[in-house]
What we know:
Elements: E1 16-17, H1 28-42, H2 51-67, E2 74-77, H3 80-89, E3 98-102, H4 111-120, E4 123-127, H5 135-142, E5 147-153, H6 165-175, E6 178-182, H7 194-197, E7 201-205, E8 217-221, H8 272-285, H9 287-307, E9 323-326, H10 335-341, E10 344-345, E11 347-349, E12 352-355, H11 363-376
Helix pairs in contact: 1-8, 2-8
The chain binds pyridoxal-5'-phosphate.
Residues 79-81, 106, 108, 153, 157, 182, 184-185, 205 line the site of pyridoxal-5'-phosphate.
Amino acid sequence: MIPSQRHLFDIPDDIAYLNCAYMGPLPRAAREAGEEAAGRKARAWEITPRDFFTETETARDLFAALIGATAEDIAIVPAASYGVAVAAANLRLPPGRRALVLAHQFPSNLFSWQDLAEREGGEVVTVARPEDGDWTRSILQAIDERTAIAALPNCHWTDGGLIDLVRVGARLREVGAALVIDATQSLGALPIDMRAVQPDFLVAATYKWLLGPYSYGFLYVAPGRQDGRPIEQNWIARGGSEDFARLVDYRADFQPGARRFDVGEKANFGLTPVAIASLRQIHDWGVAEIQATLRRRTDAIAARAHNLGLTAARASLRAGHFLGLRFPGAVPEGLPEKLAQARVYVSVRGPAMRITPHLYNTDADIDRLFEVLGAVL
Length: 377
Ligand SMILES: Cc1ncc(COP(=O)(O)O)c(C=O)c1O
């Protein structure tokens, strides 16, 4: 178990921030890296052509090491939607074939599939939310010979409902379907291994559980997909782009591996150092250790909430870093306002309250949450 790491963040004592699924706060080291990066851009003469390549390689290495991949497999992307668009540009969905998504899936992993279906004549099929919370069983039941693509998360963004991607991946390979994962709500807090899951593509924005900057993300592309088509044609993804004197000797070949899918201006001097510092921090703690610690935290919150009549999904069916608490009826009148007044930050969605802690939380944060809940219920 990792003790509270509050000292590594700039979070005032009177803030009970339980909303990492909305926006992960930057660790102090990442903020300092960002300030240093802004200063460096002001001294433009210090930025060398070599710098356009070196830091992104460090970022790729660090991200790859989190998911059991290599730097060759990683592209730099600005958003989850961009990574999903790359996947959709390289997969087919002809008439009679299906792309599976979950009910109420996050839009960044839906619209590209709707667009592909419209263009190619296939169909997007939504897996309904299972009554008993067992998404894995429902997904396995939905997969058949018509399935061409499954576009899934590792856990549902609304309440952490868990999907066993190893089992789903194995079944998809049996029917010859592709697996595209949006791991934005799990990467950094829930272990995943590309060698075990074997997806075709996996994308994660860094601004939530990777505690990284906004507008920065990573796309894993399976080795067999690395000869695909990028969605934009930028100079730096082309072969030989390191030689600035010869950029107009236009070349048709690409940088090796998944780098062909890098977004334009991938060097991103302002944000790359921030992402690197955040990834280093996640590695220092260890993803499995983060998950175990947050699981203990959310289990304790669920047990206390149970005494107030609130219910949560079975622990085995939700990711440890997420808790969706349901009230007997609707969310009580005025609760979101009272929480905000007490500087307790959660997300309230429909009948459920989404509580997503991280290592910066303390026992006192949780006591504050229950003070407000106790007063309202
Ligand atoms: C599951 C999931 N994917 C992706 C995102 C962010 O998407 P994008 O990077 O396209 O803005 C969110 C934000 O809430 C999310 O919950």
